[in-house]
Amino acid sequence: MPGRRCLSSLASAKPFLKKEEKNPITNLLAPSIILATIIFLAFGSTLIQIFNNLTHAFSQIVAIGEKSTVSLTYGLLLLTIVAALIFMSIRILQSISLSKFKIVKLADKDTAVLSDGKKYYGFKAFLVTSPSKSSQNSSTSLSSNNINNFLKALQRKGVPITYVALTVPISENYTHQQMINSLLLATWSKDNHEEEAVNKVKLFAEQVEAIAYATLSGLILKRLKGSSLLKISYMPVSILPTSRELFHEIRQVALGLDFGELISFDVPAPSASREAPYDLFSPPKGLDPLGVSIGWYIGGGRTSAVKIPLSDFDKHVVIVGATGSGKSTTAITLSILLRKLGIDVLILDWHGEHRESVLKNGGVVYTPGGSLYPIAINPLDASPSVNINEHIETITNMFTEIFSFTPAQSFMFREALKNAYASSFERPPTISDLVQHIGLMPIRSSWDHETKMALLRRLKILTEGTAGEAMNKQSSIPITHLLSGFVSIELSHINDLTARQILASFILRSLYVIRSKNPPSRLQHVTVIEEAKNLMPSNAQISGQVVIEHLINEMRKFGECIVIVTQSPATISKDIIRNAGIKIIHALRSGEDIRVIRDSLSLTEEQLQILPKLQVGEAIVSYPSSPTPTIVKIRSLKDL
């Protein structure tokens, strides 16, 4: 039929069942023995008689030759019947095995959930397409190298993947003999719990997209959704039958899908993975004996030490990397190395993961809202040298950004804050004082009442629980004490996210006030901000967010370096990344994250392709003293 789609090639980069699981033949062995035993017990005498007849028939062949034609026919007929019974038994067992897998539901429109009665399977499928008809040419077509690089990267990351190559005539009237092709691929996960299976397959899908972005340049990777996904959601399970059956099943599924614009490629077979082409990176030029020895250059088949001069820390530092890539280890390693060079370090530890390393290296860990070394920091506390009106404006902007105040709410907050400071003579006002003054604000309309109630609801969380213990008190320690030595503030003891944001923002503001009193100087202090997306998001449109970015850019003049740590560069301000002096890029799996790095760092397309392939602790590092980015294995904590 003209225009009929057909299956041109089918391959699997990794089987659906893990290696430690039994294969289909092993799964069928025990049931087959049981079935054979039942058949023998039920029809034993008949089978023995058949065997005797066969033996007699063949003996007649030998004995009397041509006269045994009838016996031979009888024997062959019996053999055919026995073979048919065995084949039907195997097919029944296979169908029973397949029937165990059921589609449970469709989650998030692009995730199918299956179950075999014991475990849950998350399943996602993708289709590779070209952007437009004009892209069906050599510049955008897939090649064996493209596909091989794509599959090797997935294998290296341990992503289970099944792919199907489909072909269709370009013209329905067959005037052209050239065939264009499409790549249909799927990934899956398995877990005892449905939610975990879905979460795991989402991570696999992110890796597929990131690697496809790096290796399949110019093409589109589209997630299948809804009915299209459900049509092929049993595909990994169908690997259990014979290859011929799989061929027909996948072919029937493929005929029901709308593949849109297809592309040309040579279908490869999966092959062994190779090392990432690290020789694309040049070694660092020269070594500063007084620099920060962060690790070793690992490109070009050799290793050499990488030291970043202290002068390169005049601007802020950005450390990015997906979960598990080693970015947090790099942050604490860098902190310890700087401290050993006599630089004071403060860590805003969002998850409480650096306690052991800080204490081991002579530091101190404070826990606002916690029970071990608790401290209280009043965000309304203004330094005596600070202009009170500027302080009120800064606090208003900070709260407005974090709580997303409306203009009316922001105005009422500012007026109540002015009244709170005016009423406090011997001590700074607390958040409870501010809440009280908001309650005293006059009500002139229903809008005023709604504005007041909204403010009171949002601020109440800062007066109770761990947030109240951390911030709704007078400061128990001067901010200057936090800026000396090696200090970590564990924000994880404060349960409310907005309370953490307010406390961290206030510390940065106080840090700026203290540093701005000093004349411009070389590096004196480093502040490490974990989970920076909570303080400087990518959509910084409100004054409070702009203030934080301004503080970071300005503090470098006064000997302060800010180290910004985030798992996704796409979630923080692009200006922060672009203006960073030192960039440490661990493995990234999101296509959007890779695009952000491409726009802010001078990397070739070949170098960008390495980002999803980086191993734990490996990073692409860029710093002012090195003319080009280099690839580094970051020192482990054991080496310090």
Automatic annotation (TrEMBL):
The chain crosses the membrane at residues 28-51, 71-93. GO terms for molecular function: 3'-5' DNA helicase activity; 5'-3' DNA helicase activity. It catalyses: ATP + H2O = ADP + phosphate + H(+); Couples ATP hydrolysis with the unwinding of duplex DNA by translocating in the 3'-5' direction. InterPro entries: HerA-like, HerA_central, P-loop_NTPase, Rhodanese-like_dom. SUPFAM superfamilies: P-loop containing nucleoside triphosphate hydrolases. Pfam families: DUF87. Belongs to the HerA family. This is Rhodanese domain-containing protein. It comes from Thermoproteota archaeon. The lineage of its organism: Archaea, Thermoproteota.
